[in-house]
Amino acid sequence: MNLSSLHARFYLTLVGVVAGLLVLSGVFSYLLFSEIFPLAESYSSTQRAIHVSESKIDYLKKIVEPGVERSSSDLDTIKSMFYAPSAEHAYDIILFIESAGKSNNVTTKITTPPSDTTATVSVQIAGSFNDIVKFLRAVENDGRLLRVDSVSLAGSGNDLTGSLTFVLQAL
Questions:
Q1: How far, in Å, CA of 132 to CA of 101, rounded?
Q2: Residue from 115, 110, 108 nearest 134 by CA
Q3: Where is 154: in which H helix or E strand?
Q4: How do 146-156 and 159-168 pair as beta strands?
Q5: pTM listed for this prediction
Q6: Is 123 helix (H, G, I), strand (E, B) or coil?
Q7: DSSP string of 7-23?
Q8: Under 8 Å between Cβ of 119 and 83
Q9: Among the residues of the chain, which ranges form H helices?
Q10: Cα separation of 40 and 166, whole Å?
């Protein structure tokens, strides 16, 4: 082999390598600018949006959470106003009626207690008119939701007897 043939092959190989490098750099540039950069920008903007959303969620939690806690305690208070048919609640109602009667000088006798199947309560009462009115106010102001179905009184002066029927509003 002569030297000029070797030079020619070298230059030909060099031109081939440079051409290959140019093709590869063109493919790389095409992929970089048409595929990789737009996907990277889309990923970055999605990450920013997620961060902004997380910040907004944290802010809303700080605002809403105390209200939810208050609402939860309000719901417990509201639920306690209703009669839940059970032996425990029936016992509480009976104790309350007897206590309200004693504290207002009204004799009470529960003739129909609440039960698991009914929220109706019938009570025989005896006392003065003023004491019976105080008793009714105590029942009304207790906080339990109830509807008075009937009140009947008989007698004269400070010796009244009668009956009271009310329905506890159940859940």
A1: 8
A2: 108
A3: strand 146-156
A4: antiparallel
A5: 0.53
A6: strand
A7: HHHHHHHHHHHHHHHHH
A8: yes
A9: 3-31, 37-81, 87-103, 129-140
A10: 72
Structure token pair of residue 159: 């010796």
In angstroms, the first-to-last Cα distance of the chain is 107
The two three-digit tokens of residue 19, written as one number = 């051409």
pLDDT in single tens digits along all 171 residues of the chain: 566 788 888 888 989 999 999 999 999 989 888 888 888 898 999 999 888 888 888 888 888 777 767 777 777 777 666 666 677 777 888 888 999 999 999 999 988 888 777 788 899 999 998 999 899 899 888 877 788 888 899 988 778 999 999 888 764
**Residue 89 identity (one-letter amino acid):** H
- Read off the tokens for 122: 């019938």
- Residues in Cβ contact with 159 at an 8 Å cutoff, skipping those fewer than 6 apart: 126, 128
